[in-house]
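Table S7 (text form). Paired inputs.
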Amino acid sequence: MKEKLQFFPITAFSIIMGLSGLAIVFAKFYHMQWMPKLPYDVLLFFTFALFMFFLFTYGRKMMNHFDEVKADFKHRIRINFFSAISISFLLLSIAFMTYWPVLSVILWWIGVITHTVIMFYTISFWIQHNFEIHVMNPAWFIPVVGNILVPVAGVEYMPKAFSFLFFAIGFFFWIILFSIFLNRAIFHHQLPQKFIPTLFILIAPPAIGFIAYIRIAQSWDGFAVFMLFIAYFFVVLLLFLFKSFYKLKFFISWWAFTFPLMAITLASVVAYQISAEVMYKYIAFVLFAIALLTVGLVTWKTIGKIRDGEICVNED
């Protein structure tokens, strides 16, 4: 058991990102009167409980195996997944916005403060270390996504300038990191199998950016449509890359499939609300079905790995 605790992966928090994203989708569909409230209630509190369990478990790892946590912080790939903790706070804050506003505010502030610290540490880590181009992968986008998430609930709790600050930082680094990733993907070695599912993370920044911009600007304009259509472009691109995902060995990184699919589903619902174009409603339902199937698949695979004792193991 001690060995399992020692190797409890920081990547486990990507599960919370996926499930809390799904809870937000359930909430949105309930508010649109497209589905009953019960699935939202059940998944919301299950995800919150699971998040608390993961925090407790990683806290125990920190106390009993501090060197392992320190190694995660200095690892060239795993460092990016620490932002999944702060993003989980922010996503749960969004999920609780209409259900329990007081808890939402608390979770939001914890998420903002934690993400800001982790973001600055991560970027300084990137700058202070020399990386080979093959190390770059879509997991580097995770700290960026957190910035763009801040305004979604933040416009309710702070002046819009505060939310726009985080939106601007996130948008800027999204463009920079995407340029670097495109260079790495086209002109260098292929991604390792373990990180191919993280390609889905490419959908998240423009999809969340669209939602955040609508929340800040309250405007259905050219910039909003630009981000939404860029997100759709990545969805279609990944469909064309289907062969890259065929017969992949399962890793926890498969959960990278889930959260971006929730983000583009939510963006489609918001687009329908704002524009009243029925096309976006149909797109939202199709993406919702794909997202549910994906969550079901990775949940089944994860349970199988837990049953076989292949989750909390040395990944190096």
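Next pair, protein 2 of 2.
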Amino acid sequence: MKILQVGSSLESWGGIERYVAYLSDGLAARGHQVVVSCLPSCPLHNHLNVPILPIRVRRKFDFPAFAQYVRHFRSNRYDVVHVHFSPDFLLPAIAARMTRQPLSIMTRHVVLPWTQTKVRLYSNLFDHFIPVSEAVERQLEVSGIQKAKMTVAKAGCPPLVAAKPREEIRQELGIENGIVAVGYFGRLVVEKGVDTLITASVSVPEGISFEVFGNGPLSGELEARAKAAATPVRFHGFREDIPECIQAMEAVVIPSIWEEAFPYAALEAMSVGRPVIASRVGGMPEIVEDGRTGFLFDKGDAVGLGEAAARLAANRSMAEKMGDDARESHRSSYTIEKMAERIEAVYRSVDGRNKRRNSR
């Protein structure tokens, strides 16, 4: 199949950009001809191993970009045009419809509702929707998208591989022998719930530390809170060596208070063989098997978070078994290969259904 992944409004390197890059690699490995529309030299482009279509969409009604898509589609026929993020939801999709591209697909990456106007518009523009989790699917169904027009196809990622030994990184990070380190990896913003982690740290048993990796607008406030309360929370800022830092932890914590759709932070921790302690939001319960590959707690529940960390610290063999099960879960379900296989199956199913309908 010839497939266009539309990323012309993506200019950073977050979860959606990684999804597009990983999916493109996976589909190309399965023998498909994949092109990604994106801004040249943007972070997404720098992580791609497939050709690009150099189009940038700056806003919802970026008519020069729309004209570029129309010109391109008039001379290039794709089997699938697959969009991922607004404002790419509108003009590239309209251009694909105008030029009779056979199949238009949208992946929905967030657990947020749509207005009835958007439901009607997108239902007419797209042949099918791919929610990244069952939580996203439920929200779309509540908004008014027909369940028959949706197929959940969960993401995947490459396994992280540490380039340095675990003990070397622990020493570099200042983690003493015998300490059970629980790591947070992400932005320091309200919705990520790091304040819940700091509150939890006040009452955890000795021998547990929370290690925070990342920056954000709340950095100063959170560090001051932790210091004032003399909590075992340490801030390491942004680091490039994420695989090594995850390997140095006994577990990874995701304390989000907003509805995480299907976060890569959990998949990456699992790929390294680390159990995940996560708030019960969005698609997290679909990734973390409570009591098997990690523990779940109610969002904002500092007591629940602390108790989960304490359970892992009190039973190291259980924590190791959870980590092994987490790694196996990633290997069996959440690799790039499995992701591409699932999404290719959606393409073929919807394409076959359309062809049968058009032949009547």
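The domain at 166-333 is CATH 3.40.50.2000 (Rossmann fold).
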